[in-house]
Specification:
CATH topology of the largest domain: Rossmann fold
Largest sheet: 6 strands, parallel
CATH architecture of the largest domain: 3-Layer(aba) Sandwich
Low-confidence stretches: 15-26
Distance between the termini: 44 Å
Number of helices: 10
Bound molecules: beta-D-galactofuranose
CATH class of the largest domain: Alpha Beta
Order of helices and strands: HEHEHEHEEHEHEHEHEHEHEE
Helix content: 40-55%
Number of strands: 12
Oligomer: single chain
Radius of gyration: 21 Å
Structural class: alpha/beta
C-alpha cells in the first residue's frame, strides 16, 4: 500500500481516536499539514500541564494533526506510544523522555521507519542521541547556575558566614534533575560558606515535596538555612511543612525554586519564596516550526533553548506579568 494511502488511513484513524476521547483536541478544519505523534510523560505538575496545553494550542494554530498520548509517568507507556506512532506512519515523532536511558531500541525502530524524532523539554543519554533531529527545551544546567548565583548574592547581602543547604531533587535520572543539580553544585563548589547537608528525591511531585520536607525538618530542623527545590510543585508541597514546624519560609529559611508557574510566583510575591528560576513550558511554537521543516526536508537546529529569567526578592515582584501556567 502506498505511503500516501497509509497516511490518509492514519489521519482517519487518528480522527476516530480523537472522537472516541483518546485526546481532547479538535482536528484542524482542513487536511492537516502533517501528522505529529507526541508522547507526553505525564501530568505531574502545573509546568507539565502548561506544556501539554501549549503544544495542543500551537498544533491547532499551525494546522497540524496531533496524536498526543499521556504516559502517566511510565517509560514503558512512552515506548508503546512511540511504537503506535510508527505503526500509524506519522510524519514526525516528538516526546519528552521521563528519564535519559532506555530509548535506543525504539528510536532505532523510528529511524528504520524513516520517521524523524524531536525531543521536547528533556534529553536522552549519549548513545540514543544519534537518532534525534532536534532538542527543544531549557538549559537546565544554567537554571542550576542561576539558582546558585542568587544564593551567593543572598548570602553576601545577609552577611552569612555559613550556609546549610538541603536539596529536594526532581525525578532521578531525568535531565532537569541531573543538570539543575550539576549547575547548582558546580557554582557553589568554590564558596567555602556553602554546605549541602542532604539531597532527597521528590520526583517533581507536590506530595513527595511535602514528605521530603517533613523528613528534612525532623532530621535537621533549625540547622536548615536554604531549601533548593528542583520545581515549584515540590516547593509548594514543602512550604506548609516548614510553617507547621514553626519556621517562616522566606525568612527563617531561604527558599529557591524552579519553573515559574503562577502559583509559585504568587507565593514569591507573599515573600514565602525568595527566588524562582523560570523554566518556560511554552515550547509548542518551536516544536511545530521544527516539525514542518522536517516534513519539508529542511535542515533544523540540533538544539533550541528558550530565553529564561530569574524572579526573586531582588526585583520589584509586583511587576511580574501573568504566567499563563
Ligand atoms: C522541566 C520539566 C520539569 C519541570 C517539572 O523542563 O522537565 O518536569 O521542572 C516537571 O515541573 O515535572
Amino acid at each position: 500500500m502506498m505511503r500516501g494511502q497509509l497516511k490518509r488511513i492514519a489521519c482517519i484513524l487518528m480522527i476516530a481516536l480523537l472522537t472516541v476521547g483518546c485526546s481532547s483536541r479538535q482536528e484542524p478544519q482542513s487536511e492537516p499539514k502533517l501528522l505529529l505523534g507526541f508522547s507526553q510523560l505525564g501530568s505531574e505538575s502545573a509546568w507539565r500541564i502548561g506544556n501539554t496545553r501549549d503544544i495542543e494550542d500551537q498544533a491547532s494554530k499551525f494546522g497540524i494533526g496531533l496524536m498526543l498520548e499521556n504516559a502517566n509517568q511510565k517509560q514503558e507507556n512512552q515506548i508503546a506510544a512511540i511504537r503506535r506512532f510508527i505503526a500509524y506512519n506519522v510524519d514526525v515523532i516528538a516526546f519528552s523522555p521521563i528519564v535519559e536511558e532506555g530509548w535506543d531500541y525504539v528510536l532505532s525502530e523510528a529511524e528504520s521507519a524513516g520517521i524523524p524524532v524531536v525531543l521536547v523539554d528533556r534529553d536522552v543519554s549519549g548513545s540514543a542521541r544519534k537518532y534525534i533531529k532536534c532538542l527543544i527545551g531549557a538549559d537546565f544546567y544554567k537554571e542550576g547556575v542561576l539558582a546558585a548565583e542568587y544564593l551567593i548574592r543572598k548570602a553576601d547581602s545577609m552577611g552569612l558566614s555559613h550556609v546549610n543547604i538541603v536539596e529536594i531533587t526532581g525525578t532521578e535520572n531525568s535531565t532537569p534533575m541531573r543538570q539543575r543539580q550539576a549547575g547548582f553544585m558546580d557554582t557553589i563548589a568554590s564558596d567555602k560558606r556553602m554546605t549541602v547537608t542532604e539531597s532527597v528525591n521528590g520526583d517533581f511531585l507536590k506530595s513527595r515535596g511535602a514528605e521530603c520536607m517533613r523528613y528534612l525538618l525532623d532530621t535537621y530542623g533549625r540547622d536548615i538555612d536554604v531549601v533548593f527545590s528542583h520545581n515549584d510543585e515540590m516547593t509548594l508541597g514543602a512550604l506548609p511543612e516548614i510553617e507547621n514546624a514553626g519556621f517562616v519560609p522566606g525568612k527563617d529559611m531561604i527558599i529557591i525554586s524552579i519553573d515559574g508557574g503562577q502559583e509559585a510566583i504568587d507565593v514569591l510575591k507573599e515573600g514565602k519564596i525568595n527566588c524562582v528560576v523560570e523554566c518556560t513550558p511554552k515550547l509548542g511554537t518551536e516544536l511545530m516550526e521544527t516539525a514542518i521543516k522536517l516534513k519539508n526536508g529542511e535542515t533544523v537546529d540540533t538544539e533550541i533553548h528558550p530565553v529564561e529569567e530569574v524572579f526573586s526578592d531582588e526585583i520589584d515582584v509586583s511587576q511580574i506579568k501573568e504566567r499563563g501556567y
